[in-house]
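hey m, so remember when u said the tokens were messed up on ur end? i reran from scratch. heres the input so u can diff it against urs
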Amino acid sequence: MERNERGEFYFKAVVPVPYPIPHGGPVRKLLQKLKRRPYRRSHFYFMFEKLSYDRLITVLYLRGNPYEKTDAVVGFKELLIIDFKSIANFEGLAEQHGILLSTTLPYQLVGRPKVAHIN
């Protein structure tokens, strides 16, 4: 998949749904202590690569999910929760690619020379 001249890219996917994790024994006790339910919220994993850039692997969560605030896995940032919105059939793209929803990803790749001092 490659971006266009505006930095946009399109992909097809099934909109994910919440799913349960195994939650017997000690996991059940831990979840009860944390006041969490044994469900993962809806999410997508992405990996972005570009020559001379560090690889970015991330997860994005869908806003409005019933388990948005009680996911069994803790430690997420609000920045990773995204909104999907319906898109108009801009220049025939929706029809051509079967696109029904759109979002903006909260990332900008940074070239390796700019972050060399961090690594």
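this time it looks ok to me. The domain at 19-115 is CATH 2.60.130.10 (Protocatechuate 3,4-Dioxygenase, subunit A). if urs says something different then somethings off w ur setup not the seq
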